[in-house]
Write a structure and sequence with these properties.
- The C terminus is likely disordered.
- The two termini are 35 Å apart.
- This protein has a two-stranded antiparallel ribbon with strand order 1-2.
- The longest helix has 36 residues.
- The protein is mainly α.
- It is built from five helices and two strands; from the N terminus they run ααααββα.
- The protein is 61% helix and 4% strand.
- It has a domain of 138 residues.
- Keywords: Membrane, Transmembrane, Transmembrane helix.
Length: 201
């Protein structure tokens, strides 16, 4: 019962993190609170990968919902015994959790690359990536942020939001990893048979 409650809590946590990922990703399209920059394509190119909306957002929501369904006691039997059915449920949960690691890992990579590249902004010579050649060193050099004159406070906006996305994605990966470990423990160390026993004639 304890493992089941723990697994259910992990799955529910994924839903909350996925919703936050969607919200944070949407905010990235409105620097300075304006939609003009998105409509004129004056945003960081990584924003258009929809990592927080699709992968660590919608897909993670679907995955978490399936995990919650699999965690419930009421489930259609897929073979001749209840213990066998539970084994298959655990196996499917492992596969879904591994997919969750892939989804959140992809979002984590994209968010990190975007943070290192820096925002697309207007500087004295026009619109460009002012910090693309700094390899992320601009993050520690606050005095250089004033190069970006438009959108207002775009450097701070990107740093805060992408940092939050990185934190959310890291938590998602951790939860999915713990889910994999928990389900494998229930399969290998529990009372569920790994293989279907043939019926006696």
């Amino acid at each position: 019962m304890g493992l089941q409650k723990c697994g259910g809590c992990l799955s529910c946590s994924l839903i909350l993190l996925a919703l936050w990922s969607i919200v944070i990703n949407i905010l990235l399209y409105f620097p300075d609170g304006k939609s003009w920059y998105a409509s004129s394509n004056n945003l960081n190119n990584y924003v258009w990968y929809f990592e927080g909306i699709c992968f660590s957002g919608i897909l993670m929501l679907i995955l978490a919902a399936l995990l919650i369904i699999l965690d419930r006691d009421i489930f259609h039997e897929c073979c001749q015994s209840e213990s066998c059915t539970r084994t298959y449920r655990r196996f499917i949960s492992v596969v879904l959790a591994l997919l969750g690691i892939a989804f959140s890992g992809y979002s984590l990579i994209i968010s990190t690359l975007s943070l290192v590249q820096g925002p697309y902004c207007r500087i004295s010579t026009g619109w460009e990536y002012a910090f693309k050649d700094t390899a992320g060193r601009y993050l520690m050099d606050q005095s250089s942020w004033s190069q970006c004159t438009e959108p207002a406070y775009v450097v701070e906006w990107n740093i805060i939001l992408f940092s939050i996305l990185i934190a959310l994605n890291s938590l998602q990966m951790l939860i999915c990893f713990l889910k994999v470990i928990a389900e494998l423990k229930r399969i290998l160390c529990g009372t569920y048979p790994v293989f279907v026993e043939p019926a006696l004639i």
